[in-house]
Amino acid sequence: MGSGVPERLVRPAGPLRDERVVLRRWRVEDLPDVHLGMQDPEVPRWTRIPEGNPPHEVRRYLDGQPRAQADGAELVFALADPVDDRFLGSISLLRVVLEEHRAEVGYWLAPWGRGRGVLTSALRLLSRWALTDGGFARLELRIDQRNAPSLAVGERAGYVREGVMRSVQEHRGERIDLVLLSLLPSDLPSAPAPGRAPSIP
């Protein structure tokens, strides 16, 4: 990977954006909408977010984000409306393995952000940055095989389905199968030619 290999977990120079969504830092002002979004049953159903996650735990997670980045563990972005900047959801690079230049991507969306392509746009934006300027060589999605909407988001964003990991994780008292999808720099549309500086649209 040359000089693009990440030695530590760093953020983009500024927000990542397109016409549907802005990826930026979480803010204290987001907390009421973060908490409200987490109360939707679909969020804990498919994620590790606890059911009924109380506001003080949401604040603790926000306050812990700089440490998680410094430790190389996780890089968290808020999804925000490009018009009014309202919090719509979250997307993260998590389970980062810097020495192997790979990470998993996780995401969730509040009910008021759904149905307009926000997650697909967010996943494309973060993936392109991570595999070019971020210096990663592989990104993964691990999605409950029953979660058809989330699988569709990954495939629309260009992720390649590799297979099913059977009974690989315990989730809310049951063993579940996860579909493994991945994205490599060579999978990106208009991938930069070797030796050319990557660009982010």
UniProtKB/TrEMBL annotation:
Keyword set includes Nuclease: no
GO CC terms in record: cytoplasm
Annotated InterPro entries: Acyl_CoA_acyltransferase, GNAT_dom, Ribosomal_N-acetyltransferase
Annotated ranges, domain N-acetyltransferase: 21-185
Cleavable signal peptide: none
Keyword set, alphabetical order: Transferase
GO molecular function, one term: protein-N-terminal-alanine acetyltransferase activity
Pfam families hit by this protein: Acetyltransf_3
SUPFAM superfamilies named among the record's database cross-references: Acyl-CoA N-acyltransferases (Nat)
Protein name: N-acetyltransferase
